[in-house]
Amino acid sequence: MTPGVRPFVAGNWKMNGLSASLGEIEAMRRAADAGEAGEAELAVCPPATLLAQAAWKIRGGKLSLGAQDCHPEPSGAFTGDISAPMLKDAGATYVIVGHSERRTLHHETDALVRAKAEAALKAGLTAIVCVGETKEERQAGDAIAVVTRQLKGSLPPGGGPDSVVVSYEPVWAIGTGLTPTPKDVTEMHGAIRTLLGEIYGPGGSKLRILYGGSVKPGNCRDLLTLDNVDGALIGGASLKAAEFLAIAAAYR
Length: 252
Known about the structure:
Elements: E1 8-12, H1 22-33, E2 41-45, H2 51-58, E3 63-67, H3 84-90, E4 94-97, H4 100-105, H5 110-122, E5 126-131, H6 135-139, H7 143-154, E6 164-168, H8 182-200, E7 209-211, H9 220-224, E8 231-234, H10 241-248
Parallel strand pairs: 1-2, 1-8, 2-3, 3-4, 4-5, 5-6, 6-7
Helix pairs in contact: 1-2, 1-10, 5-7, 7-8
């Protein structure tokens, strides 16, 4: 953890969840309101179809709401896309950009991720900027170089602790059950912290750095209490409130 930085635990539901799943979000909201996550801020990022309903369910509570992607333009002839102002209007306060699944399956470049992050900031959203290396890149000894390149190309100028969150997600660990060693995570997060200082100056020391990639109740304490690990971006384990809250309990 980083001294003086409030931990942040966010759930990325990906392409999962129907209206019947809103009960899980209500359970998360109740836990957040009751202080069951200790000092951590909690957020959930459901599919866009549930954003407005989720915002209504959590209104006035301590659970934050995020989206999973946005278009870099505020409006226009982009059938099927959703803009940052639309997400803000639906009730979101966060938006994930540059997730490895978007980079890989939709061929998103660092430049596009940066444009989306800039759009998020302009709309008043906080951008959760995701970076991470593949298994081949790590085995080649290029993990830090790859993540550094992604960050330099993806982070929006003028960002700071209140508008940008970085999430390090080794691609080879997402959904595989594999996790890097605590030493690997500490080394990567330390390198990210140094780079954030170079990019954002003093504000970079307080910008939150999350870890993501097969975070589960069984391994969360070993990962989330490391230096410069300020929380987690959780995938499958966030679909059920009980699992999500068990991870957040690492900060109690």
